[in-house]
Amino acid sequence: MSHPATTRLLVPPYALSSCVRAIITRSTVEAPLVDPEDRYNHSPATPLCTIAWFIEGEGELIVPAGLPTPPAPVRAAFAGPQTQPTISWNPGPVRLFMVMFYPQALQAISGIDMACCVDRWAALDEVLGDEWQALSDAILAAPDDAARLALLEQFLAPLWQAARPKGSGALAGDWVRHLAWQAADTALGRGVRNIERRIKARAGQSMRSLLRLRRAEQSFFEARDKARGGPAKLADVAAQGGYADQAHLSREVHAITGHSPGKLLRLLESGDESYWIYRIWL
Question: pLDDT tens digit string along 15-24?
Answer without folding.
Answer: 998 899 999 9
